[in-house]
Design goal:
The chain crosses the membrane at residues 44-62, 117-137, 143-167. The protein is an alpha+beta fold. It has helices spanning 38-44, 47-60, 66-90, 105-108, 114-137, 140-143, 145-170, and strands at residues 12-14, 20-24, 29-33, 92-95, 103-104. The protein contains seven helices and five strands, in the order E-E-E-H-H-H-E-E-H-H-H-H. The protein is globular.
């Protein structure tokens, strides 16, 4: 039996029917995320971070120049954004969705076992520390400022995710 995927994020809510709903603040619209599209939505919701990691990989692993790395990262972002928008268009829309009437996704993170939450916190913190340490050790601030900034951005995102899971752990 497949394990249920628990969506967690800033704009994810759960209604009284226990359906995951993505809330778009600009459009004041909620999108009901069906259970069969949960995994795909989860991957596409990290499209910014994935594009940033693609940039870092192109720079460090493949030694491409800055412009080529930026182009590949931008193209991967545009591709994922297109798929994300196409996916959202398939979801049931709730006009004038009221997020205060729904449960926040941090409450749903309680469904994750305590050991799993602690592991995720440790891994995200370790990723943040290792990225910052790598920038310092490799002296990227002086030699490759673009990689340093990208690494700091991923470290901040990783730190944010660790804080989200700490909040979920303390709400248990």
């Amino acid at each position: 039996m497949a394990k249920e995927i628990v969506l967690n994020g800033k704009n994810i809510y759960y209604d009284k029917h226990n359906r995951a709903i993505y809330y778009n603040k600009r459009k004041q619209t909620g999108y009901v995320i069906p259970s069969d599209a949960t995994q795909r939505y989860q991957v596409l919701s990290y499209r910014y971070a994935i594009a940033l990691v693609a940039f870092i990989f192109c720079e460090l692993l493949f030694n491409l120049n800055h412009w080529m790395s930026l182009l590949i990262a931008a193209l991967s972002f545009v591709y994922m954004e297109w798929h994300y928008r196409k996916l959202l268009a398939r979801f049931t829309q709730i006009k004038s969705f009221n997020p205060s009437a729904a449960r926040a996704s941090t409450n749903e993170a309680k469904k994750i076992e305590k050991g799993g939450l602690i592991l995720r916190i440790c891994l995200y913190v370790a990723l943040s520390v290792l990225l910052v340490a790598n920038v310092i050790i490799e002296n990227y601030i002086e030699t490759n400022l673009l990689i340093a900034l990208a690494s700091f951005a991923v470290a901040l995102l990783s730190g944010y995710m660790a804080i989200r899971y700490v909040i979920a752990l303390t709400k248990e």
